[in-house]
Amino acid sequence: MGAFVISKRYNDEYKFVFTSRKGKVVFTSLSYELKFECEEDIERFKTNIQSANFLKFKSSSGKFYFKLMLGDNHFATSRKYTTSLRLQKGIDEIVRYGSVSEILDFSVNDFVFID
Q1: CATH classification of the domain holding 74
Q2: d(CA 68, CA 30)
Q3: Which residues on adjacent β-strands are paired with residue 74?
Q4: Which residues form the domain of 74?
Q5: Which of 33, 37, 85, 114 is the most exposed place for a label (fewest CB within 10 A)?
Q6: Residue 78 in contact with residue 26, Cβ under 8 Å?
Q7: Tally of domains within the chain
Q8: Coil, strand or helix at 57
Q9: 64 vs 56: CA distance, rounded Å
Q10: Going residue by residue through the chain (115 aa), what tens digit of pLDDT does each one get?
Q11: End-to-end alpha carbon distance in the chain
C-alpha cells in the first residue's frame, strides 16, 4: 500500500507526495502555505478519489506524466515515466490504494545532532 508523505519545501511551504508500495514517488502536490491545508487536501482526495481525472501528457524528451485533477482544479503532477504502460500502472496504484493509504508527516525536524 502507498503512503502520503508531507514535507517542507526549501521555501518553507508544505507539499506532499504519494509514494508507491515500493517507496517511489508517484506524484507531488502543489505547494501549501500551511500544513493543515495540505492535510485537508489529502483527506479531500482520499474521499473523492473516484472523481479524480488523470490528464496524460508526453514531454518533449519523450517521457510520460500526468496531471491529477479534482474537479477543475490542478491537484498534483506525476513523476516522469519511461513508457505509457508504467504511467498507467502508477495511475492504477493511486486508484487502488489512495483512499486507504496512511499519512506520514516529515515536515517537522525531529532529528538531534550529536557533536
Answers
A1: 2.30.29.80
A2: 11
A3: 69
A4: 3-106
A5: 114
A6: yes
A7: 1
A8: strand
A9: 7
A10: 889 999 998 898 999 999 988 889 999 999 999 999 999 999 999 999 999 999 999 999 999 999 999 988 899 999 999 999 999 999 999 999 999 999 998 877 554 455 5
A11: 38
Does 114 reside within a domain?
no
Question: Is residue 58 a part of any domain in this protein?
Answer: yes
Q: How far apart are CA 64 and CA 34, in angstroms?
A: 31
In a 13 Å sphere around the CA of 58, the CA atoms on its Cβ side amount to 7
Q: What are phi and psi of 40, to 5 degrees?
A: -65, -40
User: What is the rounded distance in angstroms from the CA atom of residue 110 to the CA atom of residue 37?
Assistant: 21
Calpha distance 9→91 (Å, rounded): 25
Q: Which of 53, 46, 57 is nearest to 79 (CA)?
A: 57
111: in domain: no
Q: Among all chains, which residue has been given the C-alpha cell 481525472?
A: 53
C-alpha cell at 64: 510520460
Q: Are 77 and 68 in contact (CB under 8 A)?
A: yes
Q: Is residue 115 part of a domain?
A: no
